[in-house]
Write a structure and sequence with these properties.
300 residues; mainly alpha; two-stranded antiparallel ribbon; 13 helices; elongated
Length: 300
């Protein structure tokens, strides 16, 4: 969560920019106008004005806020880069949803969530707009956002859409030339799978990350912005579902490793029919596991 000091630093520097537009002797706008322009509360505005006064940039008496000198670069406060990236926001938000910390039908408070996930409100709004295309959230009738939640119907549709994307990726992949980077990636992934397979009794929890890495590599051969956007959501959901169902986790992950290895060998053989068949076997297993996890959470 963003600290109060971080928000103050951003607000104060914004006020310096506003102050710099005025000449010495001019009056700054009212606190209400400044709060609106800065996108903060009047409390933050007053704290920022007090610092301007303390630093000798303005004189402040009642409603009178007179510019005494122009701001210098040395007046600006250092901004620590503590805001999370968009990629990290995606992970944090979807983990929050997929851990069932919030029920379906919940109204989302953008101001509160922007603080919780440590991102500006406008970035969160853009992120939610992107998620709305996948049916996880929707705009409320009176504005704001509503969480639709992760249901069995959503899981089935998502799994079917995933199959379409990944089978298309397989068809593209097997046609790629020998010098394409994907073949080195698949070789390295094969080695990682074999190592994990040999250490499965102590490292079976590591499979979820390897699964995400594997599917991301396959889909990377399709250079399509819409596929990439969809794959991010799909990958995160299938990654986090491993957290839900711990029943027979080691055996289930061991079986998935074998399916991955069959799939890799089929792609390396450039046999598209065999590769598609291996992909379908694994994708059906993943779909069944996802639905089983949802049943355990009484969402089906």
């Amino acid at each position: 969560m963003a600290r109060t000091d971080d928000r103050f630093r951003l607000a104060f520097n914004r006020l310096l920019d506003i102050c710099g537009r005025w000449d010495v002797g001019d009056q700054l706008p009212s606190e209400v106008v400044l709060a609106s322009e800065m996108g903060v509360s009047r409390t933050v505005v007053r704290a920022s004005l007090q610092r301007l006064s303390d630093e000798g940039l303005i004189t402040w008496q009642g409603r009178s806020k007179t510019v005494v000198r122009k701001p210098l670069s040395a007046d600006r406060l250092e901004i620590r880069d503590e805001m999370v990236s968009v990629a990290e926001l995606e992970r944090r938000f979807l983990e929050w949803v997929l851990r069932f910390d919030v029920p379906a039908g919940t109204a989302l408070n953008v101001a509160q969530l922007s603080r919780q996930f440590n991102v500006p409100a406008h970035i969160l709004q853009e992120f939610l707009a992107g998620l709305s295309r996948f049916g996880l959230v929707e705009r409320g009738s009176k504005g704001g956002w509503l969480l639709l939640g992760f249901t069995s119907e959503f899981a089935i549709e998502l799994s079917d859409f995933r199959a379409v994307l990944e089978l298309n990726a397989v068809r593209n992949l097997v046609e790629l030339p020998d010098d394409h980077e994907i073949w080195n990636q698949l070789s390295a992934l094969k080695d990682e799978h074999l190592r994990l397979q040999s250490e499965i009794e102590t490292r079976f929890h590591d499979f979820s990350k390897l699964d995400e890495k594997f599917h991301t590599a396959i889909n990377s051969v399709v250079k399509n912005r819409f596929v990439l956007e969809a794959q991010k959501v799909i990958s995160l959901i299938f990654h986090y579902h491993y957290m839900w169902d711990k029943t027979h986790e080691m055996q289930r992950n061991a079986a998935a490793i074998r399916e991955h290895l069959d799939w890799i060998e089929a792609m390396e053989s450039r046999d598209v029919e065999r590769a598609e068949a291996a992909a379908l076997r694994h994708l059906r297993t993943s779909k069944e596991t996802l639905l089983s996890s949802l049943r355990d959470h009484q969402l089906v």
